[in-house]
Amino acid sequence: MNKLQKTLKALGLIIANPYLLNAVLDDENVKKKYVASTYNLPDGLPTVDILDIFPGFDDTVEPYSFLDGGSLPTDLALLKGLAKKMNCKDYFEIGTWRGESVAVVAPFAERCTTMNLPDDVMEKMGLDKEYIHMHRFFSKDIPNVDHLQANSLTYNFTQLHKKFDLVFIDGDHHSESIRSDTENAFKLLKDEHSVIVWHDYGIGTETVRWNVLAGIMDGCPADKRNNVYHVSNTLCAFYTNEVFKTSMKKPNQKPEKYFSVKVKGVRI
Predict the structure, then answer these.
(1) Whether 30 and 158 share a structural domain
(2) What is the value of pTM for the model shown?
(3) pLDDT in tens, 218-260
(4) At what angle do helices 28-39 and 210-219 cross, to 10 degrees?
(5) Are residues 211 and 125 in the same domain?
(6) Radius of gyration from C-alpha coordinates of the chain
(7) Is 258 part of a structural domain of the chain?
(8) Closest CA to 249 of 226, 232, 267, 268
(9) Is 86 in the same domain as 167?
């Protein structure tokens, strides 16, 4: 089959199955080229060393389940550290899952709000009932956590009647969803000291997830894009007005630090 035949076959498949166009548009190589050409970020975001954000970094993350679909310990340590550092009054996140992230932050914020798709909507989507049941597992009984069940793509955020010090975006990871959540996140910021954290900016701690970065850049106001960074040793990107030294990182880098990890299991 020559190139023309392959092209015609591919076009025929897309016409017959329009959803396949999304798979093409969301392809990582396509998104990488888009981000490189549109935002001049061929290697991803500049990286801030987590030890520059938290000098003398030494903390404990709890609860942590070590189960699929969650964050890295350093991701949650980043959220906890930021909440402590900025004396967080109001914390907001999109994407609740087991409630680990908001449970980690809750002791260090006055009020937390977490948003996730309604259970009945997830049921109609055909998602596994056990998966749905596990949402809010760690956070459901925390008194300063409000659980909001809504679709962030259609929700009117003015209904919250509140601004936030720290916003964590960890919902749907398609570019358009990230773009929408990012646009809304910037409208929710309380002041110039407020911070946004995006989860899964990286496939790994050294490898960019271009689909997510495209959504972040598309949703970020033009005058704020130079204040968005990757945080070393995490899967996260963050927006901050604080000034840090940065560097450009590529995969297979020489370790510049190591972490001391203590693992203690507590049966529930």
Answers:
(1) no
(2) 0.91
(3) 999 999 999 999 999 999 999 999 999 999 988 999 999 999 9
(4) 40
(5) yes
(6) 19
(7) no
(8) 232
(9) yes
Tokens of 155: 């929700």
Give me the number of domains the chain comprises: 2
Q: Pull the structure tokens for residue 47.
A: 């990286």
In the block, residue with structure tokens 């981000």: 35
Nearest-angstrom CA–CA distance, 194 and 16: 47
One domain, residues 180 and 80: yes
**Cβ atoms 42, 36 nearer than 8 A:** yes
> What distance in Å separates the CA atoms of residue 11 and residue 18, rounded to the nearest whole number?
10
How many Å apart are CA 203 and CA 208, to the nearest integer?
Answer: 6
* Average pLDDT estimate for 146-151: 98
List, in sequence order, every residue forming a beta bridge with 159; answer none if it has no partner: none
Q: Is residue 265 part of a domain?
A: no
Q: Tell me phi and psi for residue 32, to 5 degrees.
A: -65, -45
What is the rounded CA–CA span in Å between residue 229 and residue 202? 12
Domain carrying residue 192: 45-239
166 lies in the same domain as 58 = yes
Q: How far is CA 262 from the centre of its chain?
A: 25
Q: Do the beta carbons of residue 59 and residue 87 sit within 8 Å?
A: no
